[in-house]
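Reminder to self: tokens first, then the designed residues, so the page reads top to bottom the way the pipeline ran.
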């Protein structure tokens, strides 16, 4: 047996025997690109101190990864479809690993930002490739289960990032959080060559490079605007980015509607199942990434946990994601995608609503239940949505399908950190101003403390250090016989020490109140989104046995023993088209296994008609 597998999955006459081992490689690849962001939230304090980062520098260290990652996925997904999905995965892992090595070696903010951007390019190759290879390798009957495990891995990575980073920071510097990606990427590269069969689209059409470049322009400008505006103000750069994003999106849609072979058929967004699934993914990651952003700060700064302890205390989220993912595999076939996804989004809204109770007296125990509910909600909602999005694309466009799913995820996450982060900063600043009013705190010290919760505690420590210095001077004066001067210095020291405690209390209570206020805003956004998604998603479909068909061309050896039939009257022209497509499939003897696959057939037919 050859060490490197070279037989394309499309040529296999039966399902690939080692497909579950291949899934392990794909999940490992997904793990490191999600952890690359979540681990940084824990390493940020050490990095800030070592490199002297300003708040703007730190923001772009985080988001320098996000902009190329989100902007390039559609184009790179289409290129991977045409030439090699496994090749895109391996190249992405090489680029990602190279960026990680560079990030561990640089000693400036510009160097770290550049290294993170390189890692973002690698992630843009990896992320859509993992989903497209999964969909190409697994028969349709097993695809939903595989996607459930893929989604659970993403949830695990959200919590594992801080845990791994915290363990490393116990004995090593922040650069170790970059280097840990390198051996994992190396193992994934070897695993991809040995276990993941090559795959690409069957057609030989040219890639729509103009549409791809337009997608890079409008998505990149949109993400830049989302980051720049809320954090740094709506100046010339943010407004220019907004204009470029709007014009780029308009040009993209017009071009894609007219192009015979677009990089992505935008008509799919008129389908309720597809549009609702993308909206659910974006809104969910808006809430999850936003909540993660301020909860890790609350655990570290207000509750005083170190990096490792913070990671350990995020583990209930990871465990709950796995439980929710297992539950969705049971619920979705029985109650339908609409109810399962809606239940997950309601759970996410409830988790954020529980966080509105956070105050200065709250302990970690008050956060456990919201974390568990949020994890369950992630597992419930995201797997069916990802399955529906991937099912809307024909086998020749699986890379683009993965890119659409991941772009929705990344746009939602970026918006969550930017929007909820902005609300958090504004609320914290306002509460701190109120809490310190009349306390005699100098204006410049207040302005510094309002910059962030870390800066606020630094100001409190500075006041405490001054108090200790005066106390030492008082002791020396007393030993020297200067009793009156010693008394004055002692009084000043006591006053400053009291002020330092008050300042620390004000910072902690102000940030806790800001967390509660920001959680309320997040709950309202997710709650409104839940209603929209529930309206968009079609009603439950039930499976009805039909004669065995020829199966799916993209999943060798798979057959379709069942068709899906709407449990109610069609709600729209799109659903009517879906039922028509199902009937056509029966007439030709090609059944389908899930409602998602029916949607895929309908989408393919619509795309072909449009062309």
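Designed residues (611 positions):
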């Amino acid at each position: 047996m050859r060490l490197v597998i070279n037989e394309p999955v499309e040529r296999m006459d039966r399902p690939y025997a080692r497909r579950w081992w291949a899934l392990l490689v794909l999940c490992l690849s997904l793990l490191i690109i999600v952890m690359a962001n979540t681990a940084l939230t824990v390493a940020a304090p050490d990095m800030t101190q070592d490199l002297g980062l300003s708040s703007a520098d730190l923001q772009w260290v985080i988001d320098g990864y996000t902009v190329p990652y989100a902007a390039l996925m559609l184009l790179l997904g289409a290129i991977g479809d045409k030439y090699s999905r496994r090749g895109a995965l391996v190249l992405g892992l090489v680029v990602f690993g190279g960026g990680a090595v560079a990030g561990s070696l640089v000693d400036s903010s510009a160097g770290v930002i550049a290294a993170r951007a390189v890692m973002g390019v690698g992630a843009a190759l990896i992320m859509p490739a993992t989903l497209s290879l999964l969909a190409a390798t697994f028969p349709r009957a097993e695809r939903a289960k595989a996607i459930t495990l893929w989604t659970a891995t993403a949830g695990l990575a959200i919590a594992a990032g801080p845990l791994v980073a915290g363990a490393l920071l116990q004995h090593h510097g922040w650069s170790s959080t970059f280097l840990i990606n390198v051996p994992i990427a190396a193992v994934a590269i070897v695993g991809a060559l040995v276990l993941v069969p090559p795959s690409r689209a069957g057609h030989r059409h040219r890639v729509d490079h103009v549409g791809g470049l337009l997608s890079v322009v409008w998505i990149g400008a949109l993400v830049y605007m989302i980051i720049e505006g809320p954090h740094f103000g709506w100046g010339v750069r943010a407004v220019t980015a907004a204009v470029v994003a709007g014009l780029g999106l308009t040009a993209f849609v017009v071009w894609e509607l007219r192009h015979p072979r677009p990089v992505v058929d935008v008509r799919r967004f008129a389908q309720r199942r597809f549009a609702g699934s993308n909206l659910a993914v974006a809104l969910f990651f808006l809430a999850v990434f936003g909540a993660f952003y301020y909860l890790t700060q609350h655990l570290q700064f207000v509750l005083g946990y170190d990096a490792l302890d913070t990671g350990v205390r995020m583990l209930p989220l990871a465990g709950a994601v796995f439980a929710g993912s297992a539950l969705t595999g049971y619920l979705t076939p029985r109650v339908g995608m609409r109810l399962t996804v809606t239940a997950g989004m309601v759970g996410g809204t409830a988790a954020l609503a529980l966080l509105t109770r956070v105050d200065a007296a709250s302990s970690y125990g008050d956060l456990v239940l919201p974390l568990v509910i949020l994890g369950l909600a992630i597992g419930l909602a995201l797997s069916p949505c990802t399955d529906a999005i991937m099912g809307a694309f024909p086998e020749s466009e699986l890379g683009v399908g993965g890119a659409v799913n991941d772009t929705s995820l990344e746009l939602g996450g970026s918006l969550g950190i930017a929007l909820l982060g902005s609300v958090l900063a504004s609320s914290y600043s306002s509460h701190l101003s109120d809490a310190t009013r009349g306390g005699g705190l100098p204006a410049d010290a207040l302005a510094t403390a309002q910059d962030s919760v870390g800066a606020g505690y630094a100001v409190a420590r500075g006041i405490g250090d001054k108090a200790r210095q005066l106390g030492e001077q008082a002791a020396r004066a007393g030993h020297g016989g200067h009793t009156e001067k010693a008394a004055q210095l002692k009084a000043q020291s006591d006053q400053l020490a009291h002020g330092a405690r008050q300042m620390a209390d004000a910072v902690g209570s102000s940030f806790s109140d800001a967390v509660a206020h920001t959680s309320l805003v997040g709950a309202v956004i997710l709650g409104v989104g839940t209603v929209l998604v529930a309206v968009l998603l079609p009603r439950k479909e039930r499976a009805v046995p039909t004669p065995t068909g020829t199966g799916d061309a993209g999943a060798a050896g798979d057959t379709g023993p069942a068709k899906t039939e709407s449990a109610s009257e069609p709600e729209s022209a799109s659903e009517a088209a879906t039922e028509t497509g199902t009937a056509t499939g029966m007439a030709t003897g090609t059944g389908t296994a899930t409602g998602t696959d029916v949607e895929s057939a309908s989408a393919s037919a619509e795309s072909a008609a449009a062309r």
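The radius of gyration is 26 Å.
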